[in-house]
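Predict the 3D structure for this chain.
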Amino acid sequence: MRLRLLFLLTLCGAGPTALGRTLSLRGSWRIRSGNGSLELPGRVPGCVHSALFQRGLIQDPYYRFNDLDYRWISLDNWTYSKKFKIPFNISKWQKVNLIFEGVDTVAKVLLNSVPIGKTGNMFKRYSFDVTSVVRDVNSLELRFQSPVLYAAQQSKAHTNYSVPPDCPPPVQKGQCHVNFIRKEQSSFGWDWGPSFPTQGIWKDVRIEAYNICHLNYFVSSPIYDNHTQGWNLEIESSFDVVSSKPISGQVMVAIPELQTQQTYSIELQPGERIVELFVKINKNVTIETWWPHGHGNQTGYNMTILFKLDGGLSIEKSAK
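Done. Predicted structure below.
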């Protein structure tokens, strides 16, 4: 039996390396209401409520009964838009992706007036292939749907069985059918907080361009094995190989504080590929586990993972 005492999740984008170029789309955007009667600047990461408050169009949402007075915000369908220029020659890159680390929540995504995808999960990372759509100068839109109305529509369409609760207790003054949307559940109201189911882009958004291959992410999971009484590490890496030929190379995993270093040979076929590695931690080294605050130390160990691939390509990432 393997006891998972600690799970560390590390998401690693490719970043600005020799393998590609990255353009952040954080910062200033435009936000407009569903009928276009209200348009204002907004910041990304951010949300509609924060943009309205920063422009002085609403008072502090948490003051007195403003949670009830401002319900019109969450019942409207807002649109986020941005015009941007690519600062590098886009034609030199085989693959161009539009990356959203966090969108809140239900939206249609259009680049240069072309629908490229949808979002429907606040907690999910979205990657859209825009290679055939992106230009030197671009216009990006996210057309959001009211989360309250969306949840109600989803509930109405679901007739197979009941999904309680339909609505929170009246004293909470919350919104209904929160179980039908993949959104922060407390945003529809709770016993300890008001209902503010907002809309917006709450994490990073960027353009990524690359050739040959790209490391989408890697995740690492320390595991304790009762049979061997030792620690191991599972590493999963996701690659997008745009080369028409397989790519070979080596992976070097190093955890200096645990006196652990191992090398693996890999071959990546064209397309979306997963590489799984199993690292045995040196059994002669004492492993300090992670304790909750007040019960012990929060010990972390630095790990470096280096991918050395054909053509002199090198990708290095680090994590705890």
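The first strand starts at residue 2 and ends at 3.
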